[in-house]
């Protein structure tokens, strides 16, 4: 019988902190987009964050074979597509909480993409969760008046790209350590999207002290610190265990958006987001149960 690496409470605490910092990143980014074109914002943000992490990852990168460096950079191009859809969706979104729940569909789609592209067999829970998530998304679309808004469509595209990215990361670059891989991908995204912005974006900059402050918060907190903590925490636990806690990002984002922007949800939005979150829990139920057993004292596992 295989043994499953047990996650200490420190890993759970770090992952919980990661979800809070990541949710804060939605607020930082939305505020920064008020004065910066979306692709320029995300490109320069990731480029600076990657250069900061480079200071920590450089010893490992120096020892890495060139072919693995190339693979990491190429996977970063796929990451560029995912994050470009995300930032464009965020730019058009009038409701961050709703967008965060739609984006979280990427977690649910990981086994579906693995089935389509690599022939992996998803667990039965995926096929139970998928129609529930689709119903939740349908309710969000009904809230817009029987139509899919541009921000919703862009977030769905981002979720699909993130699902593909996770699958590629686990197969193409599985032998690359997390920190140098993340550094390579952030720099790749930064170069690709900053270059693309210079070609296609003509929106003038409206930089102010506050915009620069939000931008630097996005770089230092939502990118560099977030990925550093996430890499550290994921090294202390299993990927599936980490994924369960990371699902809380959408919940925190909705709460922060309600506090900062005064967002409220209609009954349809609340039901749609609840169904999507329920689908995520069902899809990861085995690991959700293990987390609950860890957090609830005196609860014995079923035999």
Helix and strand element order:
HHHHHHHHHHHHH
Q: Can you give the mean pLDDT?
A: 86
Number of strands: 0
CA-based gyration radius: 19 Å
Largest sheet geometry: none
Low-confidence stretches: 1-7
The number of helical segments is 13
Classify the helix fraction into a percent range: over 70%
Category by helix and strand content? mainly alpha
State the distance separating the first and last CA atoms. 15 Å
> What is the 3D form?
globular
What portion of residues belong to β-strands?
Answer: under 5%
Describe, in plain words, how this protein is organized in 3D.
The protein is 79% helix and 0% strand. The chain has 303 residues and is mostly helical. The model is unreliable at 1-7 (pLDDT under 50).
Topology, element by element:
Elements: H1 9-32, H2 38-63, H3 66-92, H4 96-103, H5 105-118, H6 124-143, H7 150-172, H8 178-200, H9 209-234, H10 239-246, H11 248-260, H12 267-283, H13 285-295
Helix pairs in contact: 1-9, 1-11, 2-3, 2-8, 2-9, 3-7, 3-8, 4-7, 4-11, 4-12, 5-6, 5-7, 6-12, 10-13
In short:
The protein has helices at about 10-30, 40-65, 65-90, 95-105, 105-120, 125-145, 150-170, 180-200, 210-235, 240-245, 250-260, 265-285, 285-295.
Tags for this model:
globular, 303 residues, mainly alpha
């Amino acid at each position: 019988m295989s043994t499953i690496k047990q996650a200490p409470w420190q890993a759970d605490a770090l992952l919980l902190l990661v979800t809070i910092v990541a949710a804060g990143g939605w607020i930082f980014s939305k505020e920064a987009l008020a004065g910066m074109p979306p692709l320029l914002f995300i490109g320069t943000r990731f480029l600076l964050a990657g250069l900061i992490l480079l200071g920590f990852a450089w010893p490992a990168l120096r020892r890495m074979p060139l072919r693995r460096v190339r693979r990491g950079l190429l996977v970063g191009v796929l990451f560029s597509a995912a994050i470009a859809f995300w930032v464009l969706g965020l730019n058009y979104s009038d409701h961050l909480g709703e967008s965060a729940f739609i984006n979280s569909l990427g977690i649910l789609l990981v086994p579906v993409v693995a089935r389509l592209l690599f022939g992996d067999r998803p667990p039965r829970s995926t096929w139970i969760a998928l129609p529930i998530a689709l119903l939740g998304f349908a309710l969000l679309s009904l809230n817009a008046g029987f139509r899919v808004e541009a921000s919703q469509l862009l977030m769905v595209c981002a979720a699909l790209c993130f699902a593909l990215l996770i699958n590629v990361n686990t197969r193409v670059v599985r032998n690359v350590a997390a920190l140098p891989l993340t550094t390579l991908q952030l720099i790749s995204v930064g170069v690709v999207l900053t270059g693309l912005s210079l070609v296609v974006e003509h929106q003038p900059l409206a930089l102010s002290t506050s915009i620069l402050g939000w931008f630097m918060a996005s770089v230092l907190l939502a990118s560099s610190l977030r990925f550093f903590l996430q890499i550290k925490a994921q090294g202390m636990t299993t990927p599936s265990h980490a994924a369960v806690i990371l699902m809380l990002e959408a919940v925190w984002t909705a709460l922060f958006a309600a506090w900062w922007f005064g967002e409220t949800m209609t009954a349809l939005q609340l039901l749609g987001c609840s169904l999507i979150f329920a689908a995520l829990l069902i899809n990861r139920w085995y690991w959700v149960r293990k987390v609950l057993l860890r957090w609830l004292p005196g609860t014995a596992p079923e035999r």
